[in-house]
TrEMBL record:
Native organism: Tegillarca granosa (Malaysian cockle)
Keywords carried by this UniProt record: Heme, Iron, Metal-binding, Oxygen transport, Transport
Disordered: region residues: 52-76
Key word Ribosomal protein present: no
Family: Belongs to the globin family.
Protein name per the record: Globin domain-containing protein
InterPro entries documented for this protein: Globin, Globin-like_OT, Globin-like_sf, Globin/Proto
Globin domain boundaries: 76-223
Bias kind Basic and acidic residues: ranges: 57-67
UniProt superkingdom: Eukaryota
Length: 227
């Protein structure tokens, strides 16, 4: 009887030991299975997100193409135009302040309502404007924006982002979207003498196209800010 009890106790100890091992194996496999299952879900979600991202990218490209075809966004600059602009800007950068001041004086002469929109320049004569430190500072900022646009010519998305933000800021300055196009027109007149024989129909078209992009993006930025 004591021997049987002793043997029975040993068997029970083995049973508990096997039971613990079974639970340990069960837990390990459960953890592995759930990890594998969750990883698959995450990967599937990643694939769906990737597919959605590709789909959205295609839709964005399609929308952009539709905007171009409908005239909402001008055609992007060609590689030849980018090169023409950047080569011209190398020589123009040395006279940025002068070009900027001439641009705005011509703008105020041809469109007096624009001068009236600038509080510091109201009632100033041409001679006063030529000597104005404030006008020179503002002109340099505008020329600096042209410089930034040209540095982003090979990254159209960056150029668009820059001008949308600038347009959004101008919505608080009581500026009108039409002013942007006027500045571009007078800028072309101001740089023509500096380029001399390099001013060709192709050069004019390149600068015109750049300012079409600038004007469109700034206008869109103002409209978005006003919503």
């Amino acid at each position: 009887m004591p021997i049987f009890i002793k043997t029975l106790k040993i068997n029970w100890r083995r049973f508990y030991s096997l039971q613990k091992q079974f639970y340990r194996i069960y837990i390990i496999h459960s953890i592995w299975f759930h990890s594998f299952y969750i990883d698959n879900i995450i990967n599937s979600m990643g694939n769906i997100k990737s597919l959605n991202g590709k789909k959205k990218s295609k839709e964005d490209k399609k929308d952009k193409q539709n905007d171009i075809e409908n005239g909402n966004i001008p055609e992007p600059l060609t590689e030849e135009q980018k090169q023409l602009l950047q080569d011209a800007w190398i020589s123009l950068k040395n006279d940025m302040a002068k070009i900027g001041v001439v641009t705005f004086i011509r703008l105020f002469e041809t469109h007096p309502e624009v001068q009236d929109a600038f509080l510091p320049f109201q009632q100033l004569t041409k001679s006063d404007l030529e000597q104005s430190v404030i006008l020179r500072s503002h002109a340099l900022r505008v020329m600096g924006t042209v410089d930034k646009c040209l540095s982003r010519a090979h990254k159209p998305e960056k150029l668009q982002e820059l001008m949308l933000e600038l347009g959004s800021r101008h919505s608080t300055y009581n500026a009108k979207a039409d002013f942007f196009e006027m500045v571009g027109q007078q800028f072309l007149h101001a740089i023509q003498p500096h380029l001399g024989d390099r001013w060709t129909p192709e050069m004019e078209q390149a600068w015109t196209q750049l300012f079409k992009l600038i004007t469109t993006y700034m206008r869109n930025g103002m409209l978005s800010a006003g919503r």
